[in-house]
Design a protein that fits this description.
This protein has 138 residues and is an all-alpha fold. It has one domain. The chain contains five helices and no strands. The longest helix is centred in the C-terminal third of the chain and has 31 residues. The radius of gyration is 16 Å and the shape is elongated.
Amino acid sequence: MDIVFLVGRILLAVIFLLSAVGHLTQSKGMAQYAASKGVPAAEAGVIASGVVFALGGIALVLGIWVDLAALALALTLIPVTLMMHAFWKESDAQAKQGEQIHFNKNLALIGAMLILFFFVNQAQDIPAGITGPLFGAW
């Protein structure tokens, strides 16, 4: 069953790793878009979120402090989701639908990261991982 957990971690990590590549290689354009959404310090936010997505994604794949990575990813996604995918602010039906899809996807990712955080701390083990959880059982 360790392989199932590893495959699941890798599949979750892919979205963060691909997003990190975009954030870090296209930061100027992404910052302009974020600024148009009203994000303060947009360029710093794009780069910071890209770094968290990269480090978190790598940690998920390798199984290094998965609980810390999951928590960092969830906490980063919360403001990103609220600022970048505020579907309730859209007046165009197509734009509203697109933003709601991204908002819902991010909600699912936040939920997955919180479940992962809980699981690895309860299990006190990270199947097919390099380290155990950082925080330990509460």
